[in-house]
Amino acid sequence: MNDITIRQAKPDDAADLNRALGQLSADMGDEHRASDADIVRFCFGPAPVFQALLAEAADGSIVGVAAYSPFFSTVSGSVGIYVSDLWVAEQTRGQRLGQRLLAAVREAGMEAWDAGFIRLNVYHDNPKALAFYERLGFVHYSETQYMTLAGTAYDALGEQA
Ligand SMILES: CC(C)(COP(=O)(O)OP(=O)(O)OC[C@H]1O[C@@H](n2cnc3c(N)ncnc32)[C@H](O)[C@@H]1OP(=O)(O)O)[C@@H](O)C(=O)NCCC(=O)NCCS
Asked: Is residue 131 predicted with pLDDT exceeding 70?
């Protein structure tokens, strides 16, 4: 485990980063529509919208990833870090790499934005991940719910502008 290094993803890593994110999608049973070009544009382009940390084994293989973005909360008066993706390769799970990745996200977020908390979403049918987050102290806020505007409803809103 100690020979696994966590580092910031750089433009050269775009394909490896997308492969790791694709593994997460596959493990979750989700579609994975992001192309390598999307990763280049949205992680490393002129107006990046997320950053990523990679966990690299001694042989250079990628065994973990965390993708994250900042947001500002007026309620807390501080920046939160939204972790959009967290994944550890199956053979490496249960060795605290997920915890190390989140600790590295926290460090990076504090350094870049003086971030004060982490937020993420987890599927109801992912009890192992839920247990992992709860062990770290993540709390579920039942008074809020995740809402998305997409597809024709998203387009229709544009017609109101
Ligand atoms: C959830 C995940 C990121 C945790 O990373 P990890 O390196 O295995 O986690 P850690 O070693 O730091 O912590 C282990 C804890 O995670 C939980 N866990 C989740 N999935 C696990 C797995 N497949 N194997 C072992 N532990 C797992 C257990 O509660 C375990 O707690 P314990 O050691 O007290 O039994 C990782 O298991 C993973 O990538 N799972 C598949 C993808 C996923 O669910 N991502 C989160 C989406 S919201």
From this structure: yes
Q: Would you give the DSSP letter of residue 11?
A: G
H helices within 29-147, ranges in order? 36-44, 97-113, 127-136
**Mean pLDDT for all residues in the chain:** 96
Query: In Å, how far from its chain's centre is CA 104?
Result: 12
Of ligand 1's listed atoms, the one at least distance from the Cα of 123 is 48
Q: How many whole angstroms separate alpha carbon 55 and alpha carbon 38?
A: 21
Question: Domains in the chain and their CATH numbers?
Answer: 5-155 (3.40.630.30)
Ligand 1 touching residue 63 (CB < 6 A): no
Round to whole Å and give the CA distance between 116 and 41: 27
- Evaluate: CB of 93 within 6 angstroms of ligand 1: yes
Query: Residue 127: CB within 6 Å of ligand 1?
Result: no
Q: Which residue has the tokens 């250079």?
A: 60
Give the pLDDT confidence of 149-159 residue by residue, as tens digits.
999 999 999 99
- The pLDDT tens digits of the residues spanning 52-90 come to 999 999 999 999 999 999 999 999 999 999 999 999 999
- Is 99 a pocket residue for ligand 1 (Cβ < 6 Å)? yes
What separation in Å is there between the alpha carbon of 153 and the centre of ligand 1?
36
Structure tokens belonging to residue 11 = 């433009």
